[in-house]
Design brief:
59% of the residues lie in helices and 3% in strands. The protein has a single domain, classed as Orthogonal Bundle (Penicillin binding protein transpeptidase fold), CATH 1.10.3810. A hairpin with a 2-residue loop joins strand 2 and strand 3. It is mainly alpha-helical. The longest helix is centred in the first third of the chain and has 27 residues.
């Protein structure tokens, strides 16, 4: 190996270490501080789709919306370490098949890792970074902060980010006042918030909302779920 190549590799390694350390510091910082902006939010603003958001504390979010997103997006959220292995295996087995899934293999923790620190896409590089970041936020943040961040940064309408902005946009009330049905309707649109109509709800959102309400009833008595609803 030539001296020039060695120097290039050494510099590349140093750059990697600096970026790795910077991200680690940022992950730790966001345990207490809200992100100034995410890639998705910036893209929405750049593409003139709007950027409406209002970060709030998890205690200012109705227990109904916390329960609704767990029921819809990640029913094992309190129990797993960031990855729903069973669903990941199922996704690989059924890859290419035409069927309807109740939810995907991506957990709430993985979605937070993607939405806060990374960008939208399906490349293996992004997936690798997502796996590392998911592991780190599970380790550093804990479930309550992850759920709080998910409900603050997720896009819930065209240019509408976070549950407080979504609640005021759709129902003219604060997130703390959301009823079970209202929380379920907002959650029903999460797979494609730019497509689905929340208020008045489309036929799909109405049907999906009813399913989510039913699942909320099934999950609510769980002790671990209750800890996240306090």
């Amino acid at each position: 190996m030539s001296l020039k190549i060695k120097l290039i590799l050494r510099k590349a390694w140093k750059v990697f270490l600096v970026l790795f350390a910077a991200q680690l510091v940022y992950i730790i910082l966001l345990r207490w501080v809200d992100p100034p902006i995410t890639v998705t939010q910036f893209s929405s603003w750049m593409e003139k789709e709007g950027l409406t958001r209002d970060y709030i504390d998890i205690d200012d979010m109705s227990p109904n919306i916390r329960l609704a997103v767990i029921a819809s997006e990640d029913q094992l959220f309190p129990d797993h370490n960031g990855f729903d292995i069973a669903s990941i295996k199922e996704a690989f087995v059924n890859k290419g098949k035409k069927f309807k899934r109740v939810r995907g293999a991506s957990t709430i923790s993985q979605q937070v890792a993607k939405n806060v620190f990374l960008w939208q896409g399906r490349s293996w590089i992004r997936k690798g970074l997502e796996a590392y970041t998911t592991f780190m936020i599970e380790l550093v943040w804990g479930k309550r902060r992850i759920l709080e961040m998910y409900l603050n940064v997720s896009e819930m309408g065209k240019g509408v980010f976070g549950i407080e902005a979504a609640s005021r946009y759709y129902f003219k009330k604060s997130a703390k006042q959301l009823t079970r049905t209202e929380a379920a309707l907002i959650t029903a649109g999460l797979p494609n918030p730019k497509k689905y109509r929340i208020n008045p709800p489309s036929a799909y959102v109405t049907q999906r909302g009813e399913q989510i309400v039913a699942q909320m009833g099934n999950l609510e008595p769980d002790v671990d779920i209750q800890e996240l609803l306090k």
